Amino acid sequence: MRKGGPRKEGNYTNPCLTMHQPWASLLVYGIKRIEGRSWPAPIRGRLWIHAASKVPDESTIKAMEDFYREIYAVNGITDIKFPEHYPVSRLLGCVEVVGCLTCEELVQWEALPEAVRLEGQTNFCWLCEQPKKLLVPFEMRGFQRVYNLEKKIYEAAVRGLVPVDSPAPLKFPLPNPRDPFSLKPGSIAASFQNPKASAIEKTSSLSAAIAGARAAATQFSKDQNIRTNTIPNNTPDSTSTEPKTIFIEDNRIPNGNLKEGSIEENSASKQSDYVEEEGSSRRSQPPARLKQDPGAPSKIFAAALRGLKPS
Fold this sequence. Notes:
The protein has helices at 23-28, 58-74, 103-108, 114-118, 151-157, 204-217, 298-305; strands at residues 7-8, 15-19, 34-37, 43-51, 90-102, 124-139, 146-148, 161-163, 226-232, 243-249. It has 311 residues and is of the alpha+beta class. Strands 1, 2, 3, 4, 5, 6, 7 and 8 form an eight-stranded mixed beta sheet that branches. Helix 2 (58-74) packs antiparallel against helix 6. The longest helix is centred in the N-terminal third of the chain and has 17 residues, at 58-74. The radius of gyration is 19 Å and the shape is globular. 43% of the residues are buried. The model is unreliable at 1-7, 223-305 and 307-311 (pLDDT under 50). It holds the Pfam family ASCH. Residues 17-121 form the ASCH domain.
C-alpha cells in the first residue's frame, strides 16, 4: 500500500497547488483524476489543493459537469454527485500524486479506463488518487505553481480531512512500486505497439462535451496582459522574507490545454499582500449556487489553529 507524505524532486514539505474553480473542487471530490499542466509534476505524494479567487460562472460549471458526465458514461457510470458549492480563496483538501505522463502516453494507456484516458487534454498529465476534502475549507491566499503550505495552516488542515466517495476510485499501476517516480514522462511509451488501436471512439455528445470543456478553459487564456503583484518572498528556494514584485502573465495556457489554472490568485482576506486584480470576486456577490461554504468563517479557522472546537 502506498503511504502518504510528499516525495519530491524540489524543496517541498507540504506542497500545495492553486487551481481555478470548478476544476479545484472536481479534483478534491475525486471526479477529476487527471490534473493537466504545461510542466511535469515535481512531487509525488500528498498535494494540497487551493481554490483561486475567481468565481466561476454557471456556464463554466455546466460545461465541466457535462464533460465529466459524458466521459464517465463511456464506462457505464451515471451516478455522479457533483459539489453543491464551488468556494473560492479556500484550501479545499488534498490528493495523492502518483505519477505524471505526457498526454500521448495517457491516451494510449489501455490499462486505464476510457474515461480517465479522455481526461488527457494537456501537455503533462498529473495522475491523482485518494482524494480527501476538508470539512471546513480554510480561507487563505495562493501562489504560483507548487508552493509550501504554512506550517500552522497545515497542522490545522490535516486534522480536518475526511475521505471522499469518488464515482470510480482508481489505482494507477506503477512500473516499479518501489520507485515513486517510476511513472514519469517517457516511462511507458515503449510499451505501446499500435497507437491507433488505442483510440477511443467518440459519440457526437461526447465530442460536444469535450469541445465545451476546452471552450470553458479558454476564458483563462483570453487576457494575456502582464500584471504586477507584490508577494512575500517565501518560496522554497528563497530564505528572504522581504516582499518582492514579480510579473505574471495572466492565465497562461498552452494551446490545446484543457486547463492551466496555475496562476497565483488573490485572497478574500482584507489584508492582502499584493494588488487586487480587476474583475475580482470582491466586486460582486457570487450567485447563490456559488456562495461560500458556510463553515469557513474566520472564527472557525482561528479555533482550528488553536486545536479547539469552534464556539
